[in-house]
Specification:
Length: 446
Amino acid sequence: MQTPQKIAVVGSGLVGTLLAIYLKRAGHTVHVYDRSPDIRTVEFSGRSINLVMSNRGWKALEDVGLDEEIRKIGIPVDKRAIHLQDGKLNYQYYGKEGEAIFSLSRGVLNRKMVDLAEAEGVEFFFERKIWDVTLATATLWEGETEQGEWTELKYDKVFGADGAFSRIRHRMQRQSMFDYSQEFMKIGYKELHIPANADGSPKIDIHSLHIWPRGNFMLMGLANLDNSFTCTLFMPIEGENSFESLTNEEKLVSFFATYFPDTKDVIPDLVRDFFRNPNSYLAIMKCFPWTFNDKIALIGDSAHAIVPFYGHGMNAGFEDITILNELMQQYGDDWDRIFKAYEISRKPNADAIAELSRRNFEEMSAKTADANFLLQKKIEKWFSDKHPEKWMPLYSRVTFSLQPYSEAMAIGDFQNEIMQEVLKMDNIQENWNSEEVENKILELLK
């Protein structure tokens, strides 16, 4: 427990609500503000990518005893199901036997988190627009419109958990010596839907992340609790085979018949969903510092928005909370020290998962259908099963361990260099699991 303070969290998304629970448990009065309506009262669809919870996210939930509640609303996913254009289906298992990520509907999870936070005594203020913050005094400014009259709300601390386009960060950006960058990918996404069968059974395997890799675009699907699937079409915004090029029903149906022929029977409302649901955009956002004195801190997407291709936006945000909580326990009421140590610890790891997420688009959209890449994964799995103390594949380091992202990326890059040498060996396709290959890897690891 710390000396109780009055703390505001701006943003009632997943990171904001979990942070509020941690702060409440530490003895503080916690108010959460959000400009949107209470998510429990709105229909949530059209702009979502299902979330995947992995070890870092589970750790943050376990530390406050909420993991079992959340497991009830998730579906374990232990492999990728790769749908090739010729109709073939390949499976790639993620980790060791029993290791799985969990598919979660963002809307269902967010509603559950708000319920859990309210049960802890956190107070929520929905449809309250925060336009600005006075950094030195942790004073929020709220009003109906940006140009209208504002009311001041005084706090001891303010946490900005208000996402990639954070108002709290917007104020911090106007200081000198504040670094900020925002980069939009040339790829957008659109939500599509695979309903369950009439008898309630799933049309495709619910324990797989389904990927239709097609080079510079792809379709992806993750299961929901009702055996339907939330699908996401990732494509260039402009050019050939882009959102811009699919202007009418005829072009859309022809495009899907060419590139995703096996979806014809599973996405019955393709045309309706495609033209009704909005195009959404993907941005990578970086900044530093993340804190101001002992008053203000950014957390989650407001500090480090990433693209969704590693499934770690939520997991990285939850890990921010884990690290912040460890520092609160270590340094007690010395918030200046807590905040400084928090941003220094997290910044390199946030940058690393941003880079890994960017790279993973290429892996999912192109490499998962590439014979050399599949061979590399096969060799890595075989070698890692024989020498678990010497080799953990990058995906497992990121997803099934708590190793800092920056370390995982550095080791992953080193392992990839080794694998490129191994793939040059004579007859590697036939001899991939030979003693010669094993010795070569052991030698290169030295």
